[in-house]
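Dear U.,

For the methods section draft, I wanted the exact inputs and outputs in one place so we can describe them consistently. I've listed the two proteins in the order they'll appear in the manuscript figures. Please don't edit the C-alpha cell lines directly; just add comments below if something needs changing.

First protein:
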Amino acid sequence: MSTPRSLALPPGVYAVTIETDRGDFAAHTVLTEGAVGHVLLVPGWTGSKEDFTAFLPLLAAAGFDATAYDQRGQYETLGTPDDDYTLAGFAADALAVRGMASGAARSHLLGHSFGGLVAQQAAIADPSSWHSLSLLCTGPGALGETPGRPPLTPLVQALGVMTLAEIRAALPSDPTLAPDIAAFLDRRFTSNAPASLKAITQLLIDAPDIIDEVAGTGLPFWVGRGADDDAWPHDVQATMARRLDTEVHVVEGAAHSPAVENPQALLDAWLPFLKENT
C-alpha cells in the first residue's frame, strides 16, 4: 500500500463522488483552464485515490485535468459481497469513471501496481477510450508470492475468518509515522469491502498474462517503476516493456509508490510521453 505524506488536499484538488451507471466512485480531481487532455489514475492493492493526491497538482500545472478514484470496494467507494470483482469488472468501472470524469473523447490511462492489471484489461476492453496506456510498478500478470513481501495466500484465507481490524493489527506497522497518517492507513484498510480485498488479493496471486493482447490494441505504451521497487521483479517489468516495444523508465528516489515518494521525478519521467501522445 502507498503511504501518503499528507492528508491535506492541495489547492485545486477536490474530493468528489463520480456517479456512473455502475455505481458511485469516490475520487480526487483536478481541473485546469484550457486543459490539453485528461488523465485517469487507477490505484493498487489496499490503495486509494490518496495515492495520487500530491501528484494531481503537478499534472494540472502541466496542463492536464486528472482523476484518481477508489476502485470498487476500496476505502470510500462502497462494495457489496455480490459485486463484480473480476478484472473485467474492475476494468468496466474504470471505463465508466472515465466516461463521467472526462469531457474529452479519450483519456490517458495509468495503472499503479494492481491498478496496472486493471488498466491493461480496460485498454483491451475499449482501446478507443484511451490516448495511451501507462503501467507503473506493475507487471504482465500475477505478482504471486514475491520474496521479501508479505505472503498473499494467508490473507485470502484469513478474509472471512478474521475481521479486517484483526488482520490489520497483525500486519507490520511503521512506528515512525505521524499519528494522523497511521490512523488513515488503519481506517483505509478496515474500510475495504472484504469481498473486494479478497478478490484483488487472489488476482495478485493468479491473474493471467495478457500483454500480447494489450500490445495488440496499438496504443502508445509507457512503463515505469521506482528505482527501489520491491514488487514485480525488475527483470519481469523490463521484459514486459520490451513486449510493448518500449523500455522501463526508472524514477529515482522512489520505491513502489513513486507518485507519493517522488512525484516530481515521476512527472519528469512521464510528461514527455503524455505530451507526445496528446
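Second protein (the one for the lower panel):
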Amino acid sequence: MFEFISDALAAVWNVFKSIRITDIIDIAILSYLIFHGIKLIRETRAQQLVKGILFLIGFYVLSVFLKLQTMRYILKLCFNWGFLAIIIIFQPEFRRILEKMGRTRLTQFQLFANNESESELSAERQCIDAVCESVQELSASKTGALIIFERTTKLGEQIDTGTILNCTPSVAVFGNIFFPNTPLHDGAVIIRDGIILAAGCFLPKPQKEELIAKQLGSRHRAAIGMSENSDAIVVVVSEENGTISVAENGDLTRGFTKDNLKKLLIDRVIHNEDADSAKETSFAGRVISKWKK
C-alpha cells in the first residue's frame, strides 16, 4: 500500500516537473477563451446548439461502442458538414460575438491614465445629471422617451436617420423633444461625448424579437435591438406606466430611480465599466428582467 502511494506521488511529481512555462501560458489562454466563450453563448440560441452538439457526440461514442455502423456513418456526415451549416444558421450570433471582440478597447491595456480631459468629463457628468432629471420628470408624467449614450461603437447609421441637433442636454430640451405629437418624439435621442448629437433616430430591430415578451412596446424593443448591435447604453421611459428601464448587451433592466440610474450611467459612460464587472453593484429598488418567454 505504501509503495502504491509513493509511486502515485512520484508520478504526479514527474508530471509537474515536465510542465514548462509555455504549457502554463497555453492552459491559461485556453481557460480564458473557454470562460468567455461560455459567457458569450449563455442565454442565446447558441447555448441550445452546444447542448445539441454534446448530445450528438455522446450518441456517436455510443454508436462506436455498440458498433452501430449506419448511425456512425450518418453522424460522421453530420460532423463533416455541420460546421458550415452552423455558420449559416447562427450567423447573427457569430456576428454579435465578433462585434464584441472588435469593441474591445486597446486603451484597456495601456499603462497610462485616462486621456480624457477634465472638461470632457465635466460635460459628461452634466449630461448625465440632465438626463436623470429629465427622465424623472418624464416618468412622472408618463411621457415615453428613448435616450442612447454612444460608447465605443459609433452609431453613424442611426444618426443619419434622425435630425442633427448638436446641442447641450437640459431638462427643457428633452421635454421639447419627447413632448407628445412633436415631430421628434417617436424617435431616439443619441448622445455623444455629453452632447445631444441627433434626435428622432430610428433603431434596428432586435435579433431575437420572438423571444421578447409581448408586453413590451416598440420603444423597449428598439432599445434591446440597439443594445444588441452596439455597446451603447439605452435609457427608456414607458409611456404606459412611467417605468424607467436600461438596455445593455441585449438585456433589459427595469425599475430604475433617478439615483440608481445616475450611478449606473456614471459607471458605464464615464468609468467605462462593463456590465459583468459591475454586477456586484446593488441598486435600491432595482428589478431585473430579461423579458424572455
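Candidate sentences for the figure legend, describing the second protein: The chain has two domains: 2-109, 119-288. Strands lie at 145-149, 163-167, 188-192, 195-201, 233-237, 244-248, 251-254, 287-288.

Thanks,
Y.
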